[in-house]
Structures are given as C-alpha cells and as structure tokens.
C-alpha cells in the first residue's frame, strides 16, 4: 500500500484492494493508511457484500456515489447536476461518458439512448467510461 501511495503521489493513480475474512482488520488497515496518506490524495473506497447477495457492480456504484458526493436525499435533478458538474470540471472530453454514468447510477433519461444498445456493447462502453473517468 505504501508503494501504491508513492506511485499515486508521482501522478500514477492506483487501485488497492483488501480481501479477507470478517474481523481480520481490513477496515483498521484502511483507516491507518488514510492517516499515513493524509489529505493530499483523493481516496475513494467501496465495500462489497456477501457472495450472491447483490450485483457485482454494487462496489463500483458505491465508489462512484462517494466520488460524486451523491446522497440518498438527492433527487434525480441534483444527482444529474453533481455528476455532470464533476465530470465536466475534470475534462470536457469526458462529456460522452455521461450517458453511461447516468445509467449506472440510476439517473433516468426519458429518451434512454442506451435502451436499444446491445447489452455486451453497453457493458463494455460503461466500463470504459468509468475507466476514463478514474484515469
């Protein structure tokens, strides 16, 4: 984790996962890591649920909700504003990722341009949109 932090501080974003049985100390490890890293790095975290209980996308959706600072109190308009604002502030060339991010985060679109898209293509493009956003 310290090597990943050094790389991130050098401008190369990193992903670190902690996997283990309940009670092993993963949350404590992450807490201690946050203390070492300080506030100079953007750190997003997500948690998975037990196998078979939910979609494989839930940790990713949770991570994105945290990143966009979406709360349960936010209505659809507010969620759309938060996502759009943050994406376009990062880089205007990411505008084409918005429809995929909206879909993944449950922000509906009356015309839903993705409704007729092949599911495999939609999945690939959604994951590519998330990858572009995070990179």
Tell me what you see in this structure.
The structure is a single chain. Helix content is 51%, strand content 0%. It is an all-alpha fold. The chain folds into 2 domains: 43 residues, no CATH class; 85 residues, no CATH class. It is globular.
Distance between the termini: 19 Å
What percent strand? under 5%
Query: What do the pLDDT scores average to?
Result: 86
Number of domains: 2
Count of helix runs: 6
Largest sheet: none
Count of strand segments: 0
Percent of residues in helices: 40-55%
The low-confidence runs, each spanning 5 or more residues with pLDDT under 50, are none
**Shape, per Cα inertia axes:** globular
Radius of gyration: 17 Å
Q: Label the structural class.
A: mainly alpha
> What is the succession of H and E elements?
HHHHHH
Key terms:
135 residues; mainly alpha; 6 helices; globular
Explain the layout of strands and helices.
Elements: H1 2-9, H2 26-37, H3 58-68, H4 76-90, H5 98-104, H6 119-134
Helix pairs in contact: 5-6
In short:
The chain has helices at residues 2-9, 26-37, 58-68, 76-90, 98-104, 119-134.
């Amino acid at each position: 984790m310290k090597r990943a932090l050094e790389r991130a501080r050098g401008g190369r974003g990193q992903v670190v996962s902690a996997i283990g049985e309940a009670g092993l100390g993963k949350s404590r490890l992450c807490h201690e890591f946050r203390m070492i890293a300080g506030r100079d790095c953007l750190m997003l975290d997500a948690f998975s649920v037990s196998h078979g209980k939910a979609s494989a996308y839930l940790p990713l959706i949770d991570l994105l909700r945290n990143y966009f600072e979406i709360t349960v109190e936010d209505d659809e308009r507010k969620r759309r504003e938060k996502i759009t604002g943050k994406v376009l502030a990062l880089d205007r060339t990411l505008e084409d990722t918005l429809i995929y991010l909206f879909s993944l985060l449950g922000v509906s679109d009356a015309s839903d341009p993705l409704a007729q898209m092949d599911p495999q293509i939609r999945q690939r493009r959604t994951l590519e949109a998330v990858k572009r956003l995070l990179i």
